[in-house]
Design brief:
The chain contains two helices and four strands; from the N terminus they run H-E-E-H-E-E. The chain has about 110 residues and is α+β, with helices and mostly antiparallel strands. The chain has a four-stranded antiparallel beta sheet, covered by helices on one side. A hairpin with a 4-residue loop joins strand 1 and strand 2.
Length: about 110
């Protein structure tokens, strides 16, 4: 191989793609990313990308206090449903690690 020829960098590993996607969401800083986990990952060789689905818990706003009639059962139900799971799909360039897109995914 001559000095002029350049070797293309190796594609990112699956772990590197996940780390890049997580860091992208963290850097956006839109909201707290509680309990963030990898949900799915898929490599699109034709497009040269990784699609990384990350899930995290989003706090649900509480509207008012339970009334006296609802009592303890309403409070218990509230405590057990204060979060919803949110899923984001981050598309990462497999060569350079750049986040190219982010989309919401329905559960």
């Amino acid at each position: 191989m001559s000095a002029i020829e350049q070797v293309a960098p190796a594609p990112m590993t699956i772990k590197e793609a996940v780390a890049q996607a997580k860091q992208f969401l963290i850097d956006l800083g839109e909201e707290p990313l509680n309990n963030m986990r990898l949900e799915e990952i898929e490599r699109d060789r034709e497009a040269g990308t990784w699609r990384v689905t990350l899930g995290y818990d989003r706090d649900v706003e509480r509207h008012g206090e339970p009334n006296a009639l609802a009592g303890a059962l309403a409070e218990l139900a509230w405590r057990n449903s204060r979060t919803v799971r949110v899923y984001k799909v981050v598309t990462v360039d497999a060569q350079n690690g750049e986040a190219l897109a982010m989309k919401m995914r329905q559960p």
